[in-house]
Amino acid sequence: AVVSTQSTGIKDTTVGTLSQHLTTQVVALKSLASKLQDISVYLTQVTDGKLPVNHPIIYQLQDVFHLLPNLSMPDLMKAFTIKTNDQELVMYTASIIRAVIALHSLINNKTTNRAAEKEGSKKVEVEKDDKEEKEKDTKEDSNKKDVKS
Hints:
Layout: E1 3-4, E2 11-12, H1 14-47, H2 55-67, H3 74-148
Antiparallel strand pairs: 1-2
Protein backbone atom coordinates (compact mmCIF):
# COMPACT_ATOMS: atom_id res chain seq x y z
CA ALA A 1 0.00 0.00 0.00
CA VAL A 2 1.25 3.44 -0.91
CA VAL A 3 0.34 6.32 1.35
CA SER A 4 1.01 9.90 0.33
CA THR A 5 0.80 12.93 2.55
CA GLN A 6 -1.44 15.69 1.27
CA SER A 7 0.72 18.67 2.14
CA THR A 8 4.10 17.45 0.87
CA GLY A 9 3.22 14.96 -1.86
CA ILE A 10 5.85 12.52 -0.54
CA LYS A 11 4.95 8.87 -0.90
CA ASP A 12 5.86 6.57 1.99
CA THR A 13 5.44 2.88 1.20
CA THR A 14 6.59 1.76 4.66
CA VAL A 15 3.54 3.12 6.43
CA GLY A 16 1.19 0.48 5.00
CA THR A 17 3.52 -2.37 5.81
CA LEU A 18 4.11 -1.11 9.34
CA SER A 19 0.41 -0.66 10.03
CA GLN A 20 -0.33 -4.17 8.71
CA HIS A 21 2.42 -5.60 10.92
CA LEU A 22 1.10 -3.77 14.00
CA THR A 23 -2.47 -4.85 13.25
CA THR A 24 -1.34 -8.46 12.99
CA GLN A 25 0.50 -8.21 16.31
CA VAL A 26 -2.51 -6.64 18.05
CA VAL A 27 -4.75 -9.46 16.79
CA ALA A 28 -2.21 -12.06 17.97
CA LEU A 29 -1.97 -10.44 21.42
CA LYS A 30 -5.77 -10.37 21.73
CA SER A 31 -5.87 -14.05 20.79
CA LEU A 32 -3.19 -14.83 23.38
CA ALA A 33 -5.11 -12.92 26.07
CA SER A 34 -8.26 -14.86 25.19
CA LYS A 35 -6.46 -18.21 25.41
CA LEU A 36 -4.84 -17.26 28.74
CA GLN A 37 -8.28 -16.28 30.04
CA ASP A 38 -9.65 -19.69 28.95
CA ILE A 39 -6.76 -21.44 30.76
CA SER A 40 -7.42 -19.36 33.88
CA VAL A 41 -11.13 -20.23 33.83
CA TYR A 42 -10.32 -23.93 33.34
CA LEU A 43 -7.81 -24.00 36.21
CA THR A 44 -10.22 -22.11 38.50
CA GLN A 45 -12.99 -24.61 37.74
CA VAL A 46 -10.61 -27.52 38.39
CA THR A 47 -9.48 -26.08 41.75
CA ASP A 48 -13.12 -25.40 42.72
CA GLY A 49 -13.96 -29.02 41.90
CA LYS A 50 -16.42 -28.11 39.13
CA LEU A 51 -14.34 -29.95 36.50
CA PRO A 52 -12.26 -33.12 36.85
CA VAL A 53 -8.47 -32.90 36.41
CA ASN A 54 -7.42 -33.68 32.85
CA HIS A 55 -3.80 -34.80 33.19
CA PRO A 56 -2.77 -34.32 29.52
CA ILE A 57 -3.92 -30.67 29.73
CA ILE A 58 -2.03 -30.13 32.99
CA TYR A 59 1.12 -31.69 31.47
CA GLN A 60 0.82 -29.39 28.44
CA LEU A 61 0.47 -26.37 30.72
CA GLN A 62 3.51 -27.45 32.72
CA ASP A 63 5.53 -27.74 29.50
CA VAL A 64 4.44 -24.26 28.43
CA PHE A 65 5.33 -22.70 31.77
CA HIS A 66 8.70 -24.48 31.88
CA LEU A 67 9.58 -23.00 28.49
CA LEU A 68 9.03 -19.45 29.74
CA PRO A 69 12.19 -17.61 30.82
CA ASN A 70 12.86 -17.01 34.51
CA LEU A 71 12.50 -13.24 34.70
CA SER A 72 13.51 -13.05 38.34
CA MET A 73 17.17 -13.41 37.36
CA PRO A 74 18.85 -9.95 37.19
CA ASP A 75 21.23 -10.96 34.38
CA LEU A 76 18.35 -12.08 32.17
CA MET A 77 16.38 -8.92 32.89
CA LYS A 78 19.44 -6.82 32.00
CA ALA A 79 19.91 -8.74 28.75
CA PHE A 80 16.23 -8.25 27.81
CA THR A 81 16.46 -4.54 28.63
CA ILE A 82 19.63 -4.08 26.56
CA LYS A 83 18.17 -5.94 23.59
CA THR A 84 14.92 -3.97 23.76
CA ASN A 85 16.79 -0.67 24.01
CA ASP A 86 18.99 -1.62 21.04
CA GLN A 87 15.94 -2.47 18.94
CA GLU A 88 14.20 0.77 19.86
CA LEU A 89 17.36 2.74 19.05
CA VAL A 90 17.52 1.15 15.60
CA MET A 91 13.84 1.93 14.98
CA TYR A 92 14.29 5.54 16.17
CA THR A 93 17.39 6.03 14.01
CA ALA A 94 15.62 4.57 10.98
CA SER A 95 12.67 6.88 11.58
CA ILE A 96 14.96 9.92 11.76
CA ILE A 97 16.76 8.86 8.57
CA ARG A 98 13.44 8.44 6.74
CA ALA A 99 12.35 11.90 7.89
CA VAL A 100 15.63 13.48 6.74
CA ILE A 101 15.39 11.77 3.34
CA ALA A 102 11.77 12.93 2.98
CA LEU A 103 12.75 16.50 3.86
CA HIS A 104 15.65 16.34 1.41
CA SER A 105 13.31 15.18 -1.35
CA LEU A 106 10.87 17.94 -0.45
CA ILE A 107 13.60 20.60 -0.64
CA ASN A 108 14.83 19.25 -3.99
CA ASN A 109 11.27 19.28 -5.29
CA LYS A 110 10.76 22.89 -4.15
CA THR A 111 14.00 24.08 -5.76
CA THR A 112 13.13 22.28 -9.00
CA ASN A 113 9.67 23.87 -9.02
CA ARG A 114 11.10 27.34 -8.34
CA ALA A 115 13.65 26.94 -11.12
CA ALA A 116 10.88 25.84 -13.49
CA GLU A 117 8.76 28.83 -12.47
CA LYS A 118 11.69 31.21 -13.05
CA GLU A 119 12.33 29.71 -16.49
CA GLY A 120 8.63 29.96 -17.26
CA SER A 121 8.55 33.63 -16.26
CA LYS A 122 11.74 34.31 -18.25
CA LYS A 123 10.13 32.75 -21.33
CA VAL A 124 7.07 34.93 -20.84
CA GLU A 125 9.31 38.01 -20.51
CA VAL A 126 11.28 37.05 -23.63
CA GLU A 127 8.03 36.53 -25.54
CA LYS A 128 6.80 39.95 -24.35
CA ASP A 129 10.09 41.57 -25.40
CA ASP A 130 9.91 39.87 -28.81
CA LYS A 131 6.32 41.02 -29.23
CA GLU A 132 7.21 44.60 -28.25
CA GLU A 133 10.15 44.61 -30.67
CA LYS A 134 7.91 43.36 -33.49
CA GLU A 135 5.37 46.06 -32.69
CA LYS A 136 8.13 48.71 -32.70
CA ASP A 137 9.47 47.38 -35.99
CA THR A 138 5.98 47.40 -37.43
CA LYS A 139 5.42 50.99 -36.24
CA GLU A 140 8.81 52.10 -37.56
CA ASP A 141 8.11 50.47 -40.93
CA SER A 142 4.70 52.12 -41.12
CA ASN A 143 6.25 55.50 -40.09
CA LYS A 144 8.92 55.12 -42.80
CA LYS A 145 6.21 54.38 -45.34
CA ASP A 146 4.23 57.43 -44.19
CA VAL A 147 7.36 59.62 -44.46
CA LYS A 148 8.07 58.38 -47.99
CA SER A 149 4.55 59.12 -49.09
